[in-house]
Amino acid sequence: MKYLFFCLASFIAITAAAKPELPLVFGDHMVLQRNKPVPVWGKAEAGAAVKLIFGNQVKEGVAGADGSFRLLLDAMPANSNGQSLFVISGDTVEYKDVLVGEVWLCSGQSNMEYTMNKSGKHYKANRSQGLDSAQVSQENNPAIRLFLVNRDLNKRSDRNKGWQRAEAPWVGQFSAPGYYYARELQSRLNVPVGMMAASIPGSAIEPWLPAHTVTDSLKTRQEPAGKFYTGLIQPLAPYALQGFLWYQGETNCMLNQREEYTKSMQLLIMSWRHLWNDTNLPFYFVQIAPFYYSRSKQKVQLNERSLPFFRAAQDKVLTTKNTARIITTDLVDNPEDLHPSYKWEIGKRLAWLALDRTYDVKQVSAGPRIEKVRFKDQEARVTYVNPESGLVVRDSSSITGFELAGTDGKFYPATGVVKKNKYVVVSSPAVSGPAALRFAWKEDSQPNLFNKAGLPAEPYQTGSREMPE
Q1: Among candidates 463, 375, 450, which has minimal Cα distance to 418?
Q2: Residues sharing a CB contact under 8 Å with residue 218, sequence separation 6 or more, in sequence order
């Protein structure tokens, strides 16, 4: 009788053992990062043995006193064949159809959140077009997987649907820049791509930051962690990934931030890399597009130069290793639209950055960038860093977007002419002795200078200080 009672008690204990619990970022259809060790973590019974099985890998460990565990899969090559990932501790959790490939996190405000469904309704733009609504609904790419963060990941919610294959209705609900990025990357690398998206419309950069110290007007205060950092970003770490995409800044530009935005962006890059314990993770961002900020009805008064100087604040983070950005001066049909439709171009250009800089694929990823400006007599001679990529003037024989100023600092419109396919000569009848030059330095400036790859020239000004108008 005692033996029977013992067996029954043992059986009840075994069957009652709770399943291990893993964060919401793990699920069916997920993509694990290739060529890197892959952490798998969660909660089990305190002191319980935990086993992890994936393919031919078997990893074992023991949950800590608080029940937490973390096991590490060895680095793996890409694999398009779905496999099951088993996490065993008393009971078994099985994640099905798991691929191995490239994983990226895209984040920001409304222009990154901008969905494929919305993009499909505005697919036809002046310069190019994306997928229309019918094509969006018909997308079916089993090599692309999508993880959309809809709510705080620290709380269970049926709004977070987990990883999904790239098919209806999930494609339509996903970030258009993120999806077009994955589409370009997957077609060029021919490996699975997993995209995670966490964006909030209208958000400033501050809610995406960790707790940090701020010194202002000789006062030091401690800023708590932002709610989007704690709820949408922190719970994703340390899920193995390749890098970050960032499309944000319009809200902070409307606040006329400059140095403070540079500092915030540097902190964001550093803190996100710290979360994933990898100081080399690529961080690629979007330089915000032309818009009439000076006409916006805000508490802070802006002018037509506010946007260019904000872009310069964005660009100051480019001294941080493994950062790069794309230019969007040509991706607006109407400067009164804060949400231009060219999300297919945004995704493609970001992918070109990754192909060139992360994957060493032969791909031009940047437009003409001014290297030196030399003033002589009535002209300015402008040379470029990468002339081998070409200097292409669209729809005209002369280049628009230049301005020249004399020693008085007053700028006038100027025109540029390409010489010998190597440099540009800029002049203005209103400036007899030029001493300063600007290019694409107004909020609505959309110059017509590109390279052979179709990428626009970068905004520029001589010197780094604001000059009086």
Answers
A1: 450
A2: none
pLDDT of res. 1: 43
Domain 17-98 coded CATH 3.30.70.100? no
Note the pLDDT tens digit of each residue in 103-135.
Answer: 999 999 999 999 999 999 999 999 999 999 999
- pTM beyond 0.85, yes or no: yes
Q: How far apart are CA 227 and CA 204, in angstroms?
A: 12
CATH topology of domain 100-357: Rossmann fold (3.40.50)
Q: What sign does the dihedral 39-42-45-47 (CA atoms) show? A: positive
Residues 143 and 109: their CA atoms lie apart, in Å, by 27
Structural contact between residues 284 and 243, judged by C-beta atoms closer than 8 angstroms: yes
> Which two tokens mark 360?
């060493």
Predicted confidence at residue 465, as pLDDT, reads 54
The pLDDT assigned to 466 comes to 52
**Tokens coding 43:** 């909660």
- Note whether 17-98 and 100-357 share their fold: no
For the chain, which residues make up each domain, given as ranges? 17-98, 100-357, 370-461
260: Cβ–Cβ under 8 A, 6 or more apart, which residues?
none
Which regions of the chain are under pLDDT 70?
A: 1-17, 157, 217-218, 464-469
CB distance 25 to 153 below 8 Å: yes
Closest CA to 370 of 287, 285, 289, 440: 440
Task: Report pLDDT digits (tens) over 311-347.
Answer: 999 999 999 999 999 999 999 999 999 999 999 999 9
